[in-house]
Design brief:
Layout (H helix, E strand, L loop, with lengths): L1 H16 L1 H4 L4 E10 L4 E10 L2 E6 L8 E4 L4 E4 L1 E6 L29 E11 L3 H9 L5 E7 L19 H10 L3 E7 L7 H13 L3 E4 L9 H8 L5 E2 L21 H9 L2 E2 L10 H9 L13 H4 L6 H10 L4 H6 L3 H6 L16 E14 L5 E15 L2 E5 L12
Parallel strand pairs: 1-4, 1-5, 6-7, 7-8, 8-9, 9-10, 10-11, 11-12
Antiparallel strand pairs: 1-2, 2-3, 5-13, 13-14, 14-15
The structure holds zinc ion.
């Protein structure tokens, strides 16, 4: 018996100490410029993946038998996280972004822009989440998470989103606690002057221990955003559509091009300013002066739906490229689309390339030239750099490959 134990012990030591085993990778991305803000990496490195996990980021990794992806001249980052998207697609007429025709299936649009995780922002409420899970979450290769709408019917549009009787903090929190895909609570589109929708969302957020994301405004005369930041939201709650300029919501930049002092104060206190570009919620007249004065968004997101994707917004990379051309550097833009959103939604296993992290990786080229970018009011800003997605890996598998980086040449079988 003792002999057997000693034998097993020695075998285990040999196994663990065997360098051949330790270097056995399934895929190595070689020679790319790795930007992994969580781990403070911003230089040429190799990334080794075994099955569905990142196992090593280092210089000159010996790929051995692994598949090699040559990423010279390209950027390698964690898979992008878009925390404001609309993916509860369906065929119900007049259901807007909750099982309706204006939301979009994620896989058709995410991987081609390096996005591996989306958070559907309020498409489903507690009454419709089961349908969303069955219809979208279970059938998508993209990781789909949810900000559950405080409205039980979700984002059905019209009068449904005005129904205070359908905003039940207790039921919302209960369904949020029961489903790990729910990472926060959404409140949106309410046009009354009551604070109840925001307060009930925060109550649900407290109860389920998740943040609240607020699409604020829609009320004339306008409600005070100062009051929103100081009296209603908590640090960690999210103010989306940060750079909107609407008749029904206070802008964050005043008429003189200055970011309002209480906005700067709110960000310092921990309110998250999210881009949520969308079809009507991003203006250069807000974003350019804000960035010039050093006020950057915490998170960059799309507000993706049929009304934004073919307008000025287009996709996550086009939105990130706008911020690059407005003065954020590449590291900051990547951080606002990977590690920052991961922290905001309390999913700290995502958004980085640490050893042991899930192998969600994006590879980009930086195109140089003359580009035009359009905002929600139809104005253009010119720029000279634009990110393009070359390849996306989700859970260790290549799910998008623009130029065949991962494929052998047809005549070299
Ligand atoms: Zn939205």
């Amino acid at each position: 018996m003792l002999h057997k134990i000693i034998f097993l012990f020695i075998s285990a030591l040999c196994f663990l100490g065997n360098p051949a085993y330790a270097q056995d990778y399934s895929m190595v991305i070689k020679g790319g410029h790795v930007i992994d803000p969580k781990n403070n990496i911003n230089e040429i490195m190799d990334v080794a993946i075994r099955d569905n996990k990142v196992v090593l980021v280092a210089r000159n990794i010996d790929a051995k038998q692994a598949q090699v992806i040559d990423a010279k001249g390209l950027y390698v980052t964690p898979g992008l996280i878009d925390i404001h998207s609309h993916n509860f697609f369906g065929t119900e007429p007049d259901h807007y972004l909750g099982n309706g025709l204006d939301a979009l299936p994620p896989d058709g649009f995410t991987f081609r822009t390096g996005v591996t995780t989306v958070v559907d922002a309020g498409g489903a409420g507690w009454k419709t989440f089961a349908t969303f899970k069955e219809q979208t979450i279970k059938h998508s290769k993209t990781r789909v998470l949810s900000f559950l709408n405080i409205v039980g019917e979700g984002m059905r549009g019209g009068v449904y989103e005005q129904n205070l009787n359908d905003m039940d903090a207790r039921m919302t929190a209960m369904v949020a606690r029961q489903n790990k895909e729910i990472v926060g609570i959404k409140v949106a589109h309410y046009s009354g002057r009551e604070w109840d929708p925001v307060d009930r969302a925060v109550e649900a957020g407290k109860s389920a221990n998740v943040p609240v994301i607020v699409d604020f405004g829609g009320t004339i005369p306008m409600l005070s955003t100062q009051e929103l930041f100081t009296k209603h939201l908590r640090p960690g709650d999210i103010f989306t559509h940060a750079f909107a300029e609407l008749a029904s919501r206070m802008p964050i930049v005043d008429g003189q091009g200055k970011v309002l002092p209480y906005v700067i104060e709110a960000q310092k206190r921990g309110i998250i300013f999210d881009v949520g570009h969308g079809g009507g919620s991003f203006r250069f007249s807000q974003a350019i002066p804000a960035l010039k004065s050093g006020f950057f968004p915490n998170t960059i997101s799309t507000d993706f739906h049929t009304g934004s994707m073919n307008a000025g917004m287009k996709d996550q990379l086009n939105t990130m490229s706008k911020f690059l051309n407005m003065g954020m550097n590449l590291q900051q833009v990547i951080q606002a689309s990977t590690w920052n959103p991961a922290k905001v939604i309390q999913q700290e296993d995502l958004g980085h390339l640490s050893a042991g992290a899930g192998a969600d990786v994006a590879i980009f080229s930086m195109r140089k030239g003359k580009f035009g970018f359009i905002d929600s009011s139809g104005y253009k800003m010119e720029g000279d750099q634009k990110l393009e997605c070359e390849l996306t890996i989700r859970d260790g598998v290549v799910v998008y490959d623009l130029n065949g980086l991962s494929r052998p040449a047809w005549d070299k079988k």
